[in-house]
Amino acid sequence: MDLGEVHLAVAHDGEQTYIANGRLLRSKRRYQNKLKSTLSRLLARKRRGSRRYRRVLASGRKQLARLNDQIRDILHKQTTRLVSTLYARGVQTVVIGDIRNIRVSAARVSGTESFYGKKANQKLHQMLHGQTRQPQGRTAGNESCAAG
Question: What are the Cα distances from residue 6, in Å, to 63, 85, 118?
């Protein structure tokens, strides 16, 4: 199974390929980044500790918490659906590709730290590799499959 940003997960069982679409998840991530920048700009215009500062901060935390819940829900639904589909097809073992050092290996090739650029580095840092890997392991455990 390969994890990615455009397609959350792609699995191939030898006969058929399964693709978990990551469009909604990317949309939520983009909105989350936009909201963080807006909140940062608003907070920069307020005096720290003032009533308006606290109001903007509370509003931002509430909005970001809602977005985090939506992201977690999308991720759970996608991974559960993928594992259930694989289980229904009789797949016994799921092997997940390791992408943790993708940015470091690309930086080594180019000789710089930020080889991909600002936006691509942001996307790489925000990839939900660990959060995708763990739910699939738990779901696979519930479906009596081995995940590794």
Answer: 24, 20, 18
CB 129 within 8 A of CB 78: no
The pLDDT assigned to 94 comes to 75
CB atoms within 10 A of CB 127: 19
Of 20, 16, 17, give the one whose Cα is nearest residue 8.
20
Q: How far apart are CA 77 and CA 70, in angstroms?
A: 11
Query: Cα 72 vs. chain centroid, distance in angstroms?
Result: 9
Mean pLDDT in order along the chain per 10 residues (148 residues): 72 82 90 95 96 97 96 89 86 73 60 66 68 58 52
H helices of 9-101, in order, are 23-44, 51-88
Both tokens assigned to 76: 């759970």
CB 88 within 8 A of CB 13: no
CB proximity list for 120: less than 8 A, separation 6 or greater? none
Question: Taking the mean position of all CA atoms in its chain, how far away is CA 66?
Answer: 15
- The pTM of this model reads 0.69
Do 16 and 29 contact (CB within 8 A), yes or no?
A: no
